[in-house]
Amino acid sequence: MSGASGSAVGDVFDVVVVGGGAAGLNAALVLARARRRVVVVDAGEPRNAPAAHMQGFLSREGMSPAALLEVGRKEVAGYGVELIEGRVDHIDPGFFVHLDGGPVLKARRVLVATGLRDELPEIPGVRERWGKDLLHCPYCHGYEVRDQPVGVLGTHPGAVDQALLLRQWSGDVVYFPHTQELADEQRERLLARDVYIADGTVKWLVVEDDRLRGVELAEGAVVPRSAVFVFPRMVPRDALLSDLGCERDERGWVTTDAVGRTSMFGVWAVGNVADPRALVVTAAGKGAAAAFALNHDLVDEDVERAVEEYRAAATADPSAVR
């Protein structure tokens, strides 16, 4: 991947893709195969970087996220996509994409696939074990810890549902309410699902020999666990979309249609920046869907311009056109 200085100022791209994860790269791949001029700008901060493996992606089962991106970059580069390592500072109207410390890229359309960041609870051991044995997604990691002693930290309103779901993978699930007060109905549902409730405040995660051993409560008890799940607060990296004036829903997330089109002309958003539930395979598919729509949008514009030129030529010299 080239540095920010690799692209000449003044170049006009059909599409500038901001974010080189699965969504951005797959969009770039489809667009390049449609013979569009595409550049991908990536800051190198994938959300799933701490994870050693991906699951639930047909033909890529168990592959590392880093390996997927490496292969993806080689594939899109083979079709002529320019790859720039850098960060987009802001985008001016007319799609002048300003790189931080680099050139300004001119685009006809912009696709934002900048993902999100996970805000983790301030509990000692959580950040250190993140992506190892402190996990988030049951569909991504539940099978790997099946039938093991599993814990769920009650640090998010969605944690109770997470614990109820994880009972599907393990018969030994402990829910730690921590500072979240359980409603009577929630407590009843957990107990009915055979989820043990360890009341008390979580002090830290107990780690020995670089492995999670349990969860220690402030009251002194240690509950042995080999894996713990947490529901992080997901914060989209959507400042570029906000600055462009894209509309948001009641949750505060940028709204898109089924193919990633935002409320602003020429701006698409795909992957975790618009959908916190998108897995890697989902994000890649959304990138492809957006690329189809983007190309058709560009074709419509190309045809309109061609018609205008044809009519102008016919008016100037009717004998010059067929």
UniProtKB/TrEMBL annotation:
Residue spans crossing the bilayer: 12-32
Domain FAD/NAD(P)-binding: 13-285
GO molecular function: thioredoxin-disulfide reductase (NADPH) activity
Enzymatic reactions: [thioredoxin]-dithiol + NADP(+) = [thioredoxin]-disulfide + NADPH + H(+)
Coiled coil spans: none
Protein name, entry field: NAD(P)/FAD-dependent oxidoreductase
InterPro entries the UniProt entry points to: FAD/NAD-bd_sf, FAD/NAD-binding_dom, Ferredoxin-NADP_redctase_2
Record's keyword terms, sorted: Flavoprotein, Membrane, Oxidoreductase, Transmembrane, Transmembrane helix
